[in-house]
Write a structure and sequence with these properties.
Length: about 325
């Protein structure tokens, strides 16, 4: 028997059901087709399905790594198989844009976790490598660790859905799990205010960009509403007025980097600012905002020159 036809050179032999070429073709389809199937929008917005869908990258790219190591020109060459699997993961992210999906660094990171788990398993089982076992265990534990906030995200989404068109009033401790810091900002939730109760405080230092906070996972159909409003005030700044804005993006805008912006001038007194939804023209795309498919909104400060704290409350549609 020729060495390349046997499995003794492999760290771990493939399962026997893959001896049949039809089963190998089926496995390739199972590993690759899910990346190129358009996902219904309702599933993309579902917090639980989206969270588990992200982890599917771990399983599928782990499988790709095994397949490359077991079959083809890279058979038995672990390092080259690992590099090739990473390239496949990167190419998949780029090609997904052709079927209406998005290339995301987060997804590629999940690919690398899956590749790392497969590599650790092969080294552990094939060579008895303790570092390989450690790599596999650490990366496997990383998967549930990344999902540790899922129960609170589900709670936050439910609260947001139940009180819609009020999107946020910061009276519920789980709200923070659908808000994200951006551009060197820090967010503080449920800060007590005598007039407004719980508020969110956005803190930043001097910046040449647009530090702020982003909200996602809210009800995405805003049909029938003509204004997005929010209460804001400065609690600390190196001047009495600091410019800022509100950015609204629909789902397609995530791929196009397109959005609609409303501006404000934050002062030390509570004021209500907002964005009109009557004119839906996007700032940087030749189309209108899809009001039935809103994906995210950001509240930001425009290049603050000193240490600044902005409080926000009562984010709502009218």
């Amino acid at each position: 028997m020729k060495p390349e036809d046997s499995s003794f050179t492999l760290l771990v032999a493939p399962p026997t059901f893959l001896d049949r070429w039809r089963n190998r073709v089926l496995l390739v389809a199972i590993l690759l087709v899910p990346f190129f199937v358009p996902i219904p929008r309702s599933l993309q917005f579902h917090v639980v399905i989206a969270e588990f869908g992200d982890r599917l990258h771990v399983v599928l790219l782990g499988g790709v790594t095994f397949f490359l190591y077991w079959y083809g020109p890279l058979r038995g060459k672990l390092l080259r198989s690992v590099v090739a699997a990473a390239i496949v993961g990167g190419m998949i992210e780029l090609l997904q844009t052709l079927v209406g999906r998005h290339a995301l660094w987060h997804d590629f990171f999940q690919d690398l976790i899956g590749i790392g788990i497969a590599t650790g398993f092969l080294l552990w089982r094939g060579k008895g490598s303790r570092p390989g076992l450690s790599l596999m265990i650490v990366l496997m534990l990383l998967v549930p660790y990344q999902m540790r906030e899922l129960p609170w995200k589900v709670s936050a989404v439910r609260v947001c859905r139940d009180r819609f068109p009020l999107l946020a009033d910061f009276e519920h401790p789980h709200e923070k799990y659908i808000w994200y810091e951006e551009d060197d900002s820090t967010q503080h939730f449920l800060v007590s205010d005598e007039e407004h109760g719980g508020v969110q405080r956005v803190e930043t230092g001097p910046s040449d960009s647009w530090p702020g906070v982003v909200m996602r996972r809210f009800p995405n159909d805003w049909t029938g509403f003509n204004r997005l409003l929010v209460d804001i005030r400065l609690t600390e700044a190196d001047r009495d007025t600091v410019p800022g804005g509100i950015v609204i993006s629909d789902f397609e805008g995530l791929r196009e980097a397109a959005w609609k912006t409303g501006s404000f001038a934050a002062t030390r007194q509570w004021q209500t600012v907002g964005v009109s939804l009557d004119d839906l023209s996007l700032d940087n795309a030749d189309r209108e905002l899809d009001i039935s498919d809103i994906f995210s909104l950001k509240i930001f400060l425009s290049r603050p020159t000193g240490h600044t704290m902005l409080e926000i409350d009562n984010l709502r549609l009218e």
